[in-house]
Specification:
Layout: E1 2-9, E2 18-19, H1 22-34, E3 41-48, H2 54-64, E4 68-72, H3 78-91, E5 96-100, H4 108-114, E6 120-122, H5 128-141, E7 151-155, E8 158-161, E9 191-195, E10 198-199, E11 218-219, H6 222-232, E12 238-243, H7 252-263, E13 272-275, H8 284-290, E14 298-303, H9 307-313, H10 320-333, E15 339-344, H11 352-363, E16 369-373, E17 376-378, H12 383-386, E18 393-395, E19 401-406, H13 411-430, H14 432-444, H15 452-468, H16 483-498, H17 501-515, H18 519-533, H19 540-550, H20 556-562
Parallel strand pairs: 1-3, 1-4, 2-9, 4-5, 5-6, 9-12, 12-13, 14-15, 15-16
Antiparallel strand pairs: 6-7, 7-8, 10-11, 17-19, 18-19
Helix pairs in contact: 1-5, 2-3, 6-7, 7-8, 11-13, 11-15, 13-14, 14-17, 15-17, 17-18, 18-20
Length: 569
């Protein structure tokens, strides 16, 4: 029997539950289904979290002693898994190493030149199952591995591409790792489950390799999707579910059917569900169906309200005016709808002034959350990557290429934007009572003309930062090594500091001075003084239970609004 180790490292830094990287399980199930004798190959998925070191991963691979090591390579694990491959190859010099995934499929020649440990690169990002299945078949039959399709290989001192893969992807039930039982979902830590109901994207955004060009939508059979939902939404270990489809609402009736089936499952009300949505496709039936999902927020990728940047991205179809109109309609159907907006910092054509105008636009939408994507990464296979030296990007030189700033948006201005953006994330998202007090103040005082809301927030944030100074040790220019990973470590430390009782008390007192306060703000000040006196912080279920037991006179729903959502980003 041949042995193949499949290295998996998920991007689970911001969550408490165990996250599973879906690709290795999908590829394993597809390959075994295609073999005449699936007992001739043992595929062992070696699963690690985001914080695992290359040395730890290499030790686990070496202990398994495989004939082949396969690795799914992504933005978040590129450096670690490539170093792992080098370490394993030093120990097993004859080991065959195959890599695939979006971070290598479009830059296979560069990968093979820069990483001598790698033997094969899958150059098919959308039909990887077909390439991997044929690779596994050849492995057990003894046929030449470099004769399989869809690969970049070393041969005779040069790098060659084998013929493109032919055929279409099969998506029926038997290829589901959930239905086949490959994903057990039995860890007591709980799970953050990712799964897909379709492949592809009809759009062609400059920063993303998901759509455009040869991409077309491939919707999985609805029978498979419904059975997977039954498995996932009846499992006691599942806490969160993320649908990783590019746009869940491309087919309205299909989405509504999926949600209706989810609602019939035993643990539907106990699981938080997230989906990527296209705001210009939202209509009333879709909105009402989505609103039945527990704790659901409508997550839309605005990226920027700067028209020059939108033009460069390739999102002219999604102007700020059109989004404002959709949000207005959404609020007529669902007045209490929670709306989250994704923004990107460091886009071509943007400036600090333009970014502040984007934040002001979001504030005038009364958003529930602003998620700030920084640094933007230049991914192989995207227009951003191809134009990286002509678009004004200033980026790191090692993969993954991270945009630190641009010629129009220098690093000191980026830091200023981050101070504003991260504090807005804390105020709007981490404490419901703070967000509600701010928007009530806006409404009561007619603060809604362009520029007014961001001006108010900048003044509030300046005062908070003067008191707390949590950004005093925030040095973008001193980051060494993996810029993206080190930035998120710094950001996590900032958020942790901002969620202490001392910081929370400062926030609540400052917002009282700027808005006049509310009953909940006054209650929050008292509560955070209690946290502070007891040397506790308003973070996590344990401390929430502690304050509930002490203050039985305050309704639980009020205490929850005063307690931070911070969980360790």
């Amino acid at each position: 029997m041949k042995k193949l180790a499949f290295l998996s490292q998920a991007s689970d830094a911001p969550i408490r539950e165990k996250q599973i990287l879906l690709a290795p399980f999908v590829l394993k199930r597809y390959a075994l289904n295609k073999l005449d004798d699936d007992t001739a190959l043992d595929i062992k998925i070696i699963d690690f979290n985001y914080s695992a070191s290359a040395a730890d991963m290499a030790a686990s691979v070496i202990s398994y002693a495989p004939d082949v090591l396969a690795i799914s390579v992504y933005l978040w694990n590129y450096r670690e898994v490539m170093e792992c491959a080098r370490l394993v190859k030093e120990y097993y010099t004859d080991l065959i190493i195959l890599v695939g995934g979006p971070m290598v499929a479009y830059s296979a020649m560069q990968v093979l030149v820069e990483h001598s440990a790698i033997d094969y690169v899958c150059i098919e990002d959308r039909l990887g199952e077909l390439v991997f299945a044929e690779f596994c078949r050849r492995l057990i039959t003894g046929e030449a591995l470099d004769g399989g399709p869809g690969l970049a290989v070393r041969r005779d001192g040069a790098i060659h591409h084998t013929p493109p893969v032919s055929g279409s992807l099969e998506t029926e039930k038997r290829h589901s790792p959930f239905i086949a039982g490959d994903i057990a979902l039995s860890d007591p830590k709980g799970y953050y489950v990712t799964f897909e109901t379709s492949r592809g994207c009809p759009y062609n955004c400059g920063y993303c390799a998901w759509g455009g060009g040869s991409s077309k939508m491939n919707f999985f059979p609805i029978e498979r999707v419904l059975e997977e939902i039954e498995i996932i939404y009846n499992n006691d270990a599942v806490k969160h579910v993320l649908f990783v489809d590019s746009n869940m609402n491309l087919k309205r009736d299909r989405l509504i059917h999926i949600i209706e089936h989810m609602r019939k499952q035993r643990r539907f009300l106990s699981i938080n569900t997230r989906m990527h949505l296209q705001i210009n496709l939202i209509d009333e039936p879709t909105a009402r169906a989505l609103a039945t999902l527990p704790n659901f927020s409508f997550d839309f990728g605005l990226q920027t309200a700067n028209m020059a940047s939108l033009e460069y991205i390739g999102r002219r179809y999604q102007s700020p005016d059109s989004i404002a109109q959709k949000v207005s309609l959404l609020r007529t159907w669902l007045p209490d709808a929670r709306i989250s907006i994704d923004l990107m910092l460091g886009l071509p054509g943007d400036t600090l002034t333009g970014f502040e105008q984007t934040l002001d636009f979001c504030l005038r939408l009364d958003v529930f959350r602003i998620f700030l994507a920084y640094p933007v990464c230049l991914l192989p296979g995207t227009r951003f990557y191809d134009q990286r030296d002509t678009a004004g990007f200033i980026y790191t030189q090692d993969q993954p290429l991270a945009v630190m700033c641009t010629k129009d948006f220098p690093l000191p201005a980026i830091k200023e934007a981050l101070v504003i953006g991260i504090w807005m994330q804390i105020i709007l998202y981490y404490y419901d009572a703070l967000r509600e007090a701010v928007f009530l103040h806006f409404d009561n005082h007619g603060i809604n003309r362009p520029g007014e809301r961001i001006c108010f927030m900048k003044g509030l944030i300046k005062e908070v930062e003067q008191h707390l100074g949590i950004f005093e040790t925030f040095f973008l220019e001193k980051i060494e090594g993996n810029y993206t990973k080190e930035f998120y470590i710094q950001k996590g430390q900032l958020l942790k500091q901002a969620s202490t009782a001392h910081s929370a008390l400062t926030l609540f007192e400052t917002i009282r001075r700027h808005t006049g306060g509310t009953l909940e703000i006054e209650t929050g000040i008292c509560i955070h003084r209690e946290y502070l006196a007891a040397n506790r912080n308003p973070v996590g279920a344990t401390d929430l239970s502690w304050i509930k037991a002490r203050r039985a006179d305050i309704p639980n729903e009020v205490l929850s609004k005063l307690h931070s959502r911070f969980v360790g980003e």
